[in-house]
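2024-03-11 09:14:02 INFO queue: dequeued item DoxX family protein, len=125
2024-03-11 09:14:02 INFO validating residues
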Amino acid sequence: MPSSETRSALALAATLAAAGTLHFAQPKPFDRIVPRALPGTPRTWTYASGVAELTCAAAVAHPRTRSTGALAAAALFVAVFPANVQMAVDTRRSRPALRYGSLARLPLQLPLIRWAWRVRSANQR
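2024-03-11 09:14:37 INFO prediction written
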């Protein structure tokens, strides 16, 4: 049976893989939250972030690259935070469920960052 550290790493990899896959399967919701200040098209950023999540997932899944992949995942979670802020701004006048849901996403980045950092730290030994 895998250790709890391995299970946590594989769960992080699965979470990243699911999110990355969604960027390609259902790109429109992601396109809408790309900050308008970024150059290029929202779809390019949606696909690029999907590739980044899938790459991090693959790196975290493999023991040899797990530490580096988890560090990259933590950085990715920080990097996509502006999109979550954009979503919260854009939904200010939306129905309450959407507005509160987008606001709730903001603090959820912190546990994701901590999770990736713990996976990285566990693989530094």
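2024-03-11 09:14:37 INFO annotate: Residues 4-122 form one domain.
2024-03-11 09:14:38 INFO item closed
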